[in-house]
Amino acid sequence: MANQTSSSSALTGKLIGVGLVAGAAIGAVATARARGLTIPREAPDTIASWERVQAVATSMNRTDSLSMSERQSLNREYRDLVDRCLPLVASYMEVQIESPIERTFAVDRVDWINANIEGFQNLLAPLDDFLLDPGAKRTVWAAILGTINRQVVSSEMGLMLGYLSRRVLGQYDLALIGTESEGPGKLYFVQPNILQTEHLLGLPSDQFRLWLALHETTHVFQFEGFPWIRPHFRGLLYEYLEFLKSDIGELRGGLQSLKAIGARVRVNREDHKSWIESLMTPDQLTVFYRIQALMCIIEGYSNHVMNAVGRDLMPDYEKIAKRFEQRQRKKGRSDQFLAKLMGLDVKLEQYRLGEQFIDAIVAKRGRDVGLKLWSGPEMLPTMEEIKDPDRWLDRVAPQT
After folding, report:
1. What confidence tier does 339 reach under pLDDT thresholds 50, 70, 90?
2. Range of the structural domain that residue 234 is part of
């Protein structure tokens, strides 16, 4: 089933948040220079006010909270579903993992927001360290992230999280950066959104929730069954953040630096890149596309497994897939605009391209060739190979 965008890891949203910070910073430099703002005495010590982020996001989601008894009942339900999926995914992917049953939870929207704020804090912590650089305290960067501009960034992040919290159905939450990055991930099922989707699409809840559990359980196998993936992903993120810190540092160069960034944005937009991509240097784009390629495979393979296993498991599988896909196509203009603004159209592309790639290589060479993807980072396709699966097959599995 293509375009299952409502079930996702939080990582895309966090990368969008990084782009949002960069974009807000560039805009704030222009404002600061145009208005002749003075340098504040003290620069903030974090990239955003996380209290403000939380307040804005939760203000959009004060209803539909879960009671303790509901949580307990739903936890049992989703744990049973995940338990049912474990042997099926293990057989398809030919790998065993420690059971995530005790790390599976039904959550409401505020729960999801709180969990993801912590993830954002960990991801953006390297930028906080940059702010604490004594050499940056009395520069234009201090003005950029002065009280007013910091609150703008915080409000924008809060709005993004509040919006996403009303659309995400399930999530495998794995800390890739932070003090607890070696711990196992947690599985979240956002019950108010699941219930709403079932009602809107007229779906049988038992089958739809099993369908969703298959996708999320596959994520657990990907990250916990193949130990190289997490450090590889983490390394890409650190590399990307280092480029971003360097880029932000250039903003201290004054008007000339701002003009150079503006020129970069114009060139990138002429190449029809998304607004997030338009902010990036060529080096940043190289790393970003490697991250995108990995996420295409992670998300596309989860959909592939969900399809391969689900069709034999659920009598109404085709109906669920068809109605869910129709829902994606019939999004209103406001939703389409917000999806583009927040970079969620990039997420749609990840599902579509990744799933098409996996389906193509498995159809041509069988399931064993698809499993080669999990052998190591050298087996991962580039974005060019994802768009042309035969190129990947010729490289890693040439026919004799």
Report:
1. low
2. 11-396
